[in-house]
Amino acid sequence: MYRLYIRERREGERMRRGEERMRRGEEMMRREGERMRRGEHRRGEEERRRGDDEERRGEDMMRREGERMRRGEQRRGEEERRRREKRRDKDEERRGWE
User: CA-to-CA distance for 8 and 2, rounded, in angstroms?
Assistant: First the structure.
């Protein structure tokens, strides 16, 4: 008798929990429906897309900056070489005069 009572009580609790879950699910669905009607979900998608674009743009900028730095370093190297050559030419001219 007692076991039957416990089982029925447990089943009752489970049923109640199930109903609560259903109610929660229905509320969530209703809220989502209202949001969709307001067009909030669309805004969310646009924001996500914009975020992806900004991230991609940032990566592109970083890559370009890296390439520019590499090129800049090369350019700097070339400028230094030119300066050295000019200095060498001037030194040679001076020696030639002496």
Answer: 10
